[in-house]
Structures are given as C-alpha cells and as structure tokens.
Amino acid sequence: MVILYFFGPDGAGKTTLAEGLAQKIRNKNHKMKLSWMRGSHTIASLLARILSRSNFFKGSENPYYNISIPKKLKRLWQFIEFISALPIIISRFLIPSFMGYWIIADRYTLDLAVWTCLTTRDSNFLEKLEAKVLIASAKKTNAKFYVKADLETLRNRAGKFPFPAEQIRLYDRLAQTVEATIIDTTYKSADEALQEVLKALETVNSQTYDDLK
Questions:
Q1: Is residue 118 a contact partner of residue 164, using CB atoms and an 8 Å limit?
Q2: Is residue 98 left, alpha or beta, with left meaning phi > 0 and alpha meaning psi from -120 to 50?
C-alpha cells in the first residue's frame, strides 16, 4: 500500500508536483493512479446544486456552487460533507492502494477538512470527530508533502477564485499536526520543487525512494 500525498492552498503547485512524480513512477513500470478530492462530493454535491436554486442559500463561501450554509445548519452540513466524501476516499484511494497501485494524491482528506472549515466559516471543525478521522487518514499515508507559497504568489496563481488568507493558517496548522514535509514553491521552478520532493522522499520513506531509483 503506497499513498503519496500533496496538500496545500490553491495555486501552490500541488498538481504540477503530483503529475511530475506520477511520471517518474510510470517510468519505473509501477501500477499508478493519480487521484484527487476536495469537496463537495456525491450527496453534498447534489444537495449544493439544489440549494443553489434558493435565494436563502445564496452566498460566496462555497465558490463552486455559490451558496452559504446558515449558522444553524453548519454542523449538519459538516457531517454531510464528511459522509459524502467516504465513497470517494474508498474508491479512489483505499481500494486501488490495497490492489497494489501507487496512489499519488493531489488533494486528499486534509484538503477536505480545510474546505469544510472555509465553506462553513468554522475553523473549530478541526476539533470535531469527522475532522479527526480525516486527519488520522492523512497520517497513514506513506509521505505527506505540504506544498505552499507566499500569499502574493498564491494570489497571482489562484486565478478567478479569491484566495483567503485563512486557508494558509488552516493548512499550516494541519501540516504541523501530521508532521508533513514542507515544499515551498515561491521561488522554485517546477523541476527544482520536484527534485526537493524526491530528496525529501529519500528521508521520510527510504523504501519508496529506493523503488524509484
């Protein structure tokens, strides 16, 4: 079972690094899947589409559906986001990894935790049972890379979606919790950052690194 996990704020370079590492794994003829998740999924996605038709739920906290969850419903919505992600976690990550695939996770459970905090305007979600399960899942991955950049760089890269500074604070907190390796892409090219990933992988999971040599 091999899951290599890239997480961090929008525009940091997670996808570029995940794709670069995936190519190296393909070159070694390992079975590999590049998997992605964030939110909202399955039931939560369907409900969000329905709620977006109501003026009562109109808002900007969830930029993909243009909805805001009222304060009195936020705890319920957090639970819905959690259970809606379980089929994705199982089908895209856990089952393929048990089948012998190397999983490159471009966003995984920590990103869902941050997403849920931001879209319900509740950073205390990280103390709830659902978030603790998501954090525990991230800890079990073979290597965790926190991909970050400074705020100005992220704002320039983020495109049409506004970049909340709160996102950085949440990711910083979670990266410390799971003891992730930090990859700062602010002043690095994609190749330089990927080499840093490979060097870090040699330290945090030498067996996985040896399989890539």
A1: yes
A2: alpha
| Global pTM value | 0.91
SS (H, E, C) the chain: CEEEEEECCCCCCHHHHHHHHHHHHHHCCCCEEEEECCCCCHHHHHHHHHHCCCHHHEEEEECCCCECCCHHHHHHHHHHHHHHHHHHHHHHHHHHHHCCCEEEEECCHHHHHHHHHHHCCCHHHHHCHHHHHHHHHHHCCCEEEEEECCHHHHHHHCCCCCCCHHHHHHHHHHHHHHCCEEEECCCCCHHHHHHHHHHHHHHHCHHHHHHHC
Hey, which residues does 2 pair with through a beta bridge? 102
Domain map (residue ranges) of the chain: 2-38+102-212
61-109 pLDDT, tens digit per residue, is 888 899 999 999 999 999 999 999 999 999 999 999 999 999 999 999 9
Question: Which of 213, 163, 205 has its CA nearest to residue 5?
Answer: 205
Q: ω into residue 40 within 30 of 0, thus cis? A: yes
CB neighbourhood size of 134 (10 A): 26
Classify domain 2-38+102-212 by CATH architecture.
3-Layer(aba) Sandwich (3.40)
Distance linking the first and last C-alpha atoms of the chain: 19
CA distances to 64, 104, 109, 206 from 31, in Å: 33, 11, 22, 19
Q: Are the C-beta atoms of residues 4 and 104 closer than 8 Å to each other? A: yes
